[in-house]
Amino acid sequence: MQKIKQMRGTFVFTYLVIFVVFIFFIILMPNQYVYSEQSYIQDAEKSLNTAMQQPTIEQTQTAIAQTIADFPMEIVVYNNNEVIYNTTNIANPTATLLQGSVNQSAVLMEKQGNVETNNGKTSFWYSLYQMPTAKSLLNNYFVGMIIFTTILFVVILAFVAYIQWVFFKPLNNLKDSLAKAEMNNFDTIEVVHDDVINKKFKQFTNKVSRFSSNVLKDYTELERDLENARDNLEANILYSRALVHDLKTPVHEIMMENEYKLLYGDAHVDKESLAFNVAQSDAILNQLNGILNVLETGLSNEQSVMERLDVVAIISEEKQKFFSSVRQKQLLLSVEQPEKLEVISNRVSLKLLIHNVLSNAIAYAQPGSEIEIELFGDASEYTLVCRNLTDPINVERIENNAQFFQAFSEQRSEREHQYSSGNGLYLIEELSRMLDGKYSLAIDNDLVTITIVFKELVDDETPAS
């Protein structure tokens, strides 16, 4: 591009110089012609004056003849009123007869006068013809104009040809480069060092080539499928872990109920214990079926099943599963909720969430303390709040570890440690996210508050249960 600018500046300067010279030549030529005429007249007068200053009449006549040969003219010379030289056809020339006697179109100058010579008073009249070289000067003038015009035309033609070469050659190269780029033959694109356009295109294709290579390397179809499969597998594992975590509760409840009956029961409670064990066993089977269904069909299919649910009923159902644990730790589990709250959600996920909220609160509540469960709102937006008091060591772990589920994986009581997997808060947060809920955890001294806000889920095709 810089070269084109320099070339364009050189052409403009050359063109201006030729144009100025051409204009100067046009203006100067008439002046030069006038100057030539003036010089011609002065030379003729000087030669004629010299001729008339000769010492004798004969010498004067000879000199005048030479002057006429050099400067064509009609002339009459008088010496003491006697004609000593006459080139006209007038026998007795007088001033009246001579004036205007020659064709004025052929006359350059006409003059008459007197001069003192060695031979006395000499009078003269002459009519000087046009310069013999006038035609030659005009021819030279037109030849010069033709030469300058030709030079100007050649310069313009050369510039146009050069412009075509400068512009069209890179465009042709660019055309070839585009064809190679369309075939993904980026390496075969050649660049001449002064081809700025193609050089820029080469730089662009190099970037495209590198970018394409990175894309082909990092984002192949197989890798995308593998990434999706990995994400789905992780979600399935997480969901299955939650179900397994939920499954362990009925087993734990059966164990504690049996221990209680052994310690405080009598022989008449066998049927009641059997009925309790049967109910818990049925719950275990249902949980196992849920795990198998998730592992078989996938998490996405399981979560896609939406139905109308009563959140109050689910809380009451899940609360009953922790009867023995609440009794053993002498906890007060108070629930403040409306009589009924129907929402559209996934049954398995919502039950798992509520189960883990209760399980986490009971597991880490201080013995003899109160656990508060609060449910409020309507179908468009409802909130679940759980408050419980916990030990300072658990509070410290929560505050110092961003992965909340790890904060409760150690230092539990012996019996609680045996039957809890330590995933409580992590599962609560993940299950809240799966249900499009907003999870938050707040700690005030030894008071831990979990708040989950659910927005309305619109599903026109969800059947009412």
TrEMBL record:
UniProt topology in membrane: Multi-pass membrane protein
Reactions accelerated catalytically: ATP + protein L-histidine = ADP + protein N-phospho-L-histidine
GO molecular function, one term: protein histidine kinase activity
Chief subcellular location: membrane
Pfam families: HATPase_c
Cellular component GO terms, alphabetical: plasma membrane
Identification of the protein by name: histidine kinase
EC number of the protein: 2.7.13.3
GO biological processes: phosphorelay signal transduction system
Localization per Swiss-Prot or TrEMBL: Cell membrane
Enzyme class, first EC level, given as a word: transferase
